[in-house]
Amino acid sequence: MKKHLVFIGAPGSGKGTQSAKFKEEMGYNHISTGDLLRAEIAKQSELGKRVKSVMDSGQLVSDDLVVELLKANINLRDSFYIFDGYPRNIAQAETLDEQILNDYKYIAVYFKLDTEKLVERLTNRRVSPDGKHIYNLKTNPPKVAGICNVTGEKLVHRDDDKEEVIRERMKVFESTSGPMLDYYKAKGILTEVDANKGVDEIYNEISLLVK
Ligand code: AMP
């Protein structure tokens, strides 16, 4: 049965790539709190100005701020969603249940990958300016060097995809994800995938759960 999906995983574990595939193949809506925050920074909104330095340092933005942004950008009656990058800690997991998903059914998917592999992926990651098209210089390069296949725009290396910041983001993920994973395990809705596997193999595994 089709359900909402909550993708959990360290930066670079493949959540964004799978989200794009689920959007294309199954019509899911993809909501990434990181993308929403980066869009606020690009707009130079008040909110964007407030969060920029926190994001550049690899730390988490305040829970209240993120949940407001999330609420303003979803309509659950509309379609099925993939939550990518939200929740990041147990408080956010509880907020998602109590204030956003309520009685809607969903599955949490944990993308598991070791740190060195993640660092390698992120240092080679390049994205379109809106973050929606994701490339890897080694394993999935664009057709023309430095240019997005889809939009024709110049690809960017996110400021927080530089090695020092990546290591900080990994630390943040490791310290906050454990209790959140236990929370979903206890609810019996957690699935773990080996994020080392290929894009199609992972897609097939997850899609079986929501068909
Ligand atoms: P991401 O694109 O998911 O890697 O997120 C990039 C950055 O945005 C993170 O390092 C945080 O600073 C911020 N961010 C994204 N999602 C959240 C969230 N759910 N809670 C707090 N901060 C977030």
The string of secondary-structure elements, in order, is: EHEHHHEHEHEEHEH
Envelope shape:
globular
Q: Mind summarizing the main beta sheet?
A: 5 strands, parallel
Q: For the largest beta sheet, what order do the strands appear in spatially? A: 2-3-1-4-7
- Spatial extent as radius of gyration: 16 Å
Task: Classify the helix fraction into a percent range.
Answer: 40-55%
Low-confidence stretches: none
Total DSSP E strands: 7
Bound molecules: adenosine monophosphate
- The portion of residues forming beta strands comes to 15-25%
Count every helix, treating DSSP H or I runs of 4 or more residues as helices: 8
Q: Assembly type of the shown chains?
A: single chain
Structural class, from helix and strand content?
alpha/beta
